[in-house]
Amino acid sequence: MSLVRSIATVSGFTLLSRLLGFARDIMIAAMLGAGGMADAFFVAFKFPNLFRRLFGEGAFSAAFIPLLAGDIEKRGLEAAREFAARAMAMMLVIVGFLVAIIEITMPWAMHVIAPGFADDPEKFALAVELSRITFPYLVFISAVALMSGVLNTLHHYAAAAAAPIVLNICLIAALLGLTPFTQTSAHALSWGVAAAGVAQFIWLVVACKRAGFAIRWQWPKIDDRIKLLGKRMVPGMIGAGVYQLNLLIDTMLATLVSDGAVSWLYYADRVHQLPLGVIGIAVGTALLPTLSRQLQGDDPAIAMYSQNRGMEIALLLTLPAAVALGVMGMPLINVLFQRGAFGVDETLATGMALTVFAFGLPAAVLVKVLAPGFFAREDTKTPIRIGIMAMVLNIVLILCLMPFFGHLGIAAATSVSVWINAACLAITLHRRGHLVFDARLRRRVPRIALSSALMGAVLWLVIDLVWRFDVPTLERVIMMTVIVTGGVVIYGLSAQLSGATRFSELKTILRRGKTGS
Q: pTM of the entire structure?
């Protein structure tokens, strides 16, 4: 499967998941709004996800996938299957122990992750209760991450990319079906999170069996391969821990800003995460196993080509998305969320945060694209050092900006620090000779930027002309759909005419289905 087709597969399912996620968040905004109950649920939802990215993804995937790819290429499928089974057993034991400890100490943990809630005993108690419901999700989703790594290494991307769809379906079903039977809508959502972990686990077990790579359960056993996995995970866990500490600090400080700040940043980040997930995560997911197997084959020229095309595809899709979100931040939030308990004030606060987040979007995507250049070469230490530097910068900026700009200071610090992170990753790869920008990339990036700027100028003029009129919600939805469609057409035509891309090339690559074609 070609890199472009792999990216398209992951992007397609991620897009469907994010659209379902928007439907979910629209319902949450209408029923919970952006106040204390919503803040408590979002903290409870984020808490297991902090550890998921630490244990189940990030560090684990960066260490596991290159080792699994090496086993498949050099030792055969049976050896790779045995390695995956032992890795699964060790992960479940470690994560299960962690979940048990956190469940017992949840009130003390809540003082750490949401110190601002302590001033409101009712809000604090609700956050503790909801977090205890959601936290077992971590066990199942960690196993899902391992099985996703297996499927991605085998170039079976669809099932793993579709797993988040299961989560969104479970949450929507819980919100609609469980709310009448639970204390609050937040309780229904929390039980939906727990059920989603089980459903995603079953989904991936079936997918692995269909791919001919069923992972057999066994008692944990430490051998040389597991020791090597652990050794390579440690630097990655430190790096992932740095990133998660960054997110944790953001949440902690947001609880101190004002009631609703956690929710404003959550809703803005959800919209910001659409292009990040559809583009950045998709490219990074497809690029890591591709580079790993190409480098195992001792063909650095093809790996370099793949890295350049990954950056080109990422920028081709991300720059216009960032410009559009920056220009249309407030109207988008208005159309998506302003109804029910989510009012004008919430729209203003969330829309401004989205505009600030948009500035850092291209860099966030580039980090996802550049990191596999290190991981595929089994170097997990360098991204960690760079991540630590970016985290320290982020914290310093938050402390400097938050007293003056509130939650917008947190968003601005995040955007600036992620640009520093991306720049340092690119410079380091370039200095090592692992990233040389080819003539095609150097030629096309300025044209992509020009096409994005043209589209942004047109969108800004149109929004300024039509959005001042007070019209019903349905008409606003139709207007936004027409405006977004028009922006896509303008960018597509501009990119084609300027030479930023060639549609014929994408068709050829998709038709051939060859790596590096």
A: 0.66
